[in-house]
Amino acid sequence: MSRTNKQLEKLLREEWHKSFRRYSIYATIGVLLIIATVAYSTGETRIIEVPVTHIYSEATEDEELFYITVQLDPIKTKRIRVPRATAIKIGDEVRVLERTTNLFNLRKYTFQMVLQ
After folding, report:
1. Are 83 and 42 contacting, i.e. CB atoms less than 8 angstroms apart?
2. Residue 68: CB partners within 8 Å, gap ≥ 6?
């Protein structure tokens, strides 16, 4: 009887350790996702005015997407999606929202408006 109890205790302990490891991994992944979400959503935001260098569109079966390429500095350009109804031409100045994240210092650009 004592041997059976020891085997049962051993099996219960092993099962508890398996569950503990599994839930530890889930908790770690959850904490990492929360940290990444908070770090990505926080950061600095500023509005910049940049010239348009190219205008182009991409067509799919469902929709047509319009993009502009803006000159951020003498070396760096960025493609930004614009609404379909925007009246814009090459050489126009546009206002762009630049968002820098705390996670890896990523930068995201969002079209705001065409400057007259």
Report:
1. no
2. 52, 54, 55, 79, 80, 82, 88, 94, 111
Residue 61 per-residue DSSP state: S
Strands (E) across 60-106 are located at 64-71, 77-82, 93-101
C-alpha distances out from residue 28 to 4, 16, 34, 40, Å: 36, 18, 10, 18
Write out pLDDT tens, residues 9-45.
888 888 888 889 999 999 999 999 998 888 777 889 9
The span from the CA of 112 to the CA of 45, in Å, is 13
pTM exceeds 0.85, yes or no: no
Alpha helices in 1-116 (DSSP H): 2-41
The pLDDT, as a whole number, for residue 29 is 97
| Phi, psi of 88, rounded to the nearest 5 degrees | -145, 150
**What whole-number distance in Å separates Cα of residue 97 and Cα of residue 84?**
18
